Amino acid sequence: MDPIKVILVDDNQDSLEIINYFLREDPDFQLIGLCQNGEELIENVILNKPDLIITDINMPKKNGMQAIKECISIYSHVKFIFVSGYDEYAIEAFEVAAVDYIVKPVEKFRFHQALKKAKSLINLEQGEVEEHQSDQKVNKLSIRDLTSTRFIPQTDIYFIEKVGKKCLVYTKAGIFETTQTLGKMLVQLDDHFCQGHRSFIINLQKISQITPQNETFIVSFKGYHQYASISKLKINEVKEKLTLFQEK
C-alpha cells in the first residue's frame, strides 16, 4: 500500500512540531501539509486530497470542527483525528465519525494508538477498492456514507429510492443508505437499470408487474415485498427497454 497522506492542523506552532515529530516515527504516514486554521485546511484538502487529517479544534478564522464538516462534504473518504485542549467536543467529534479524539497534552503512546486505528480503517477501505477494481466478472455498485464505502452486486439490487437528501438501495441482503445522488449511481449501473421516476432507479430484470395508480405506475418485483414508482412521463421509455430485453 502507498503511504497514508496526512495533513496536520494547529494554530500553536509547538503543538504542530510535537505532533509532526511523533508522526515521523511511523513510516506508513507521509506528511503532505501543515495548516494553522480551518480555512487553510479546506484549501489544502481540495488541492491534495489527504487520507487523514489530524486537527486542533479551537483555532482562528474557522475552527477544526466546522472545517472538518466542510472537508467531508468535499472529500468524503477522508479520515480525521481531533487533538484538542478540551474534552467538550468529544461527543460531537464521534457523531461526525472521528477516528479518535485526543486531549492535550499529547502523549506519544496515545497518539500512536490513534494512528494505528486510522491505519486499519484506511487500509481496509483501500483493500476493498482494489478488490472491487480487480473483479471483472461481477458488476458492482459502490456506495458510500460518511464513514465507509460498500460494494453491492448489481444483480442483487431491486431498485434505488431518493428520500430527502439521501438514497436507499433495496437489495436481497437489506436496505442500504448512502449520501450519493441518483445521478452519480446511475452512471455506474449497467443497461438493465432505468430511472423511471425522479425518485427511483429500477432494475428492469427484477420487475414482475407494473400497475397503473392515479398519475403514476406501481412496480412490483419478483419475490420482493417493496414497491417502486414509474412516472407517466417515463412509462413508455421503461416499456420500450423491457421489450428490448425480452427480444434479446
Spatial ordering of strands, largest sheet? 2-1-3-4-5
The biggest sheet, with number of strands, parallel, antiparallel or mixed sense and barrel status, is: 5 strands, parallel
The tally of strands reads: 15
Strand content: 25-35%
Helix content: 25-40%
- Class by alpha and beta content: alpha/beta
Nearest-integer average pLDDT: 88
Cα distance, first to last residue?
Answer: 44 Å
Shape: elongated
Low-pLDDT runs: 132-137
Order of helices and strands: EHEHEHEHEHEEEEEHEEEEEH
Roughly how many Å is the radius of gyration? 23 Å
Oligomer: single chain
Please report the number of helical segments: 7
Describe this structure in a few short sentences.
The chain has 248 residues and is of the alpha/beta class.
Textual characterization of the structure:
This protein is α/β, with parallel strands linked by helices and 248 residues long. It contains 7 helices and 15 strands. It has helices at residues 13-24, 38-48, 64-74, 90-95, 108-134, 182-186, 235-247; strands at residues 4-9, 29-35, 52-55, 79-84, 100-103, 140-144, 149-153, 157-163, 166-171, 174-178, 193-197, 200-203, 207-213, 216-221, 224-231. The protein has a 5-stranded parallel beta sheet with strand order 2-1-3-4-5, with helices on both faces. Helix 2 (38-48) runs parallel beside helix 3. The longest helix is centred in the middle third of the chain and has 27 residues, at 108-134. The protein is elongated, with a radius of gyration of 23 Å. 29% of the residues are buried. The model is unreliable at 132-137 (pLDDT under 50).
